[in-house]
Glutamine synthetase (Prunus yedoensis var. nudiflora), 432 residues
Amino acid sequence: MAQILAPTSQWQMRITKSSTTASPMTAKMWSSLLLKQNKRGPTKSSAKFRVLASKSEGYTINRLEGLLNLDLTPFTDRIIAEYIWIGGSGIDVRSKSRTISKPVEHPSELPKWNYDGSSTGQAPGEDSEVILYPQAIFKDPFRGGNNILVICDAYTPQGEPIPTNKRARAAEIFANQKVIDEVPWYGIEQEYTLLQTDVKWPLGWPVGGYPGPQGPYYCGAGADKSFGRDISDAHYKACLYAGINISGTNGEVMPGQWEYQVGPSVGIEAGDHIWASRYILERITEEAGVVLTLDPKPIEGDWNGAGCHTNYSTKSMREEGGFEVIKKAILNLSLRHTDHISAYGEGNERRLTGKHETASINTFSWGVANRGCSIRVGRETEKQGKGYLEDRRPASNMDPYIVTSLLAETTLLWEPTLEAEALAAQKLALNV
């Protein structure tokens, strides 16, 4: 069961694992303890109070809270910067901290830093130094104050992007003037699943068993329908604090599964914000004692998988006549379906089966308001004749730098042959 995440007070009480008869620390009990302390006169330290409090049934005091919540701002200009990067698997986030002499406003003010790439699967042991380049800054919701989170990408000492650095290639595409002129917007729906720590089984599910079938859990409320709301809400607020462009959250179809949305974001910012939000979610689940998984199909059988649907539009799509531009983009996407699928996340074949609100991984399709298609166009877009498309193929563990830049490349920079375009147009006409 996840611990409820809430702002902690200096004297927060927690139940120990050995307690079986503990009762909540009531206001009356607190008053009694404080009264006893006051009658004895001022104490030289807080030790006596801690002893008194720890004698109440099954409760201990987290003695680190005071230090963890220290506000350094009145005492020093120095701040803590948490450098965050993507590890060798392409989905794991790594981080380490360093002291910066004063608050900063732009990544260019931060120094480059190195790490041991041989320990993250990104460099050989005999030449293990990898260099971090700061790229985006967010406020740190864990340390508060002027402290920051820093999204970085990774390079060799010679300045070449390492193979797992997908941000560098995405930045090149988004720096293309044709792409810049079209101001690509992204809204990314990140689904994820919460697992119990020891058994790696979804949160709220009976160990070794299954809950009732899907139906009541999507956007549901109640102890028998919603599992992990405290984590979702804590993550929501932490992202807003950090400056991440999070736009909403909801419980998903499979119990123990949640979704949050980031956007609309422009260009490379979409990837930076998703990776920062994933890091924050990892940290919150760490503190709550729950395991986060971005596996696209964490439970086999009649259960929904986890995707990362990517809503996309360009300036031309958002203007009058944009629906025809959207259709042309869909045509291009149909011709590069294999390229996109291969880049849309590991294990996606277990999710894209044609069931559970997905299209088959082997067949490209599109439709209006159809969640069983590769590309969905909303009713409002059809009605207004302009708007956006939703690519429903990306898996929950996709790399947002790859997906966002590939969408821009395919729809704005790539040109099919006339023969291929004509054939694809015929197929899509039959599909609709």
Notes: The longest strand covers residues 185-196.
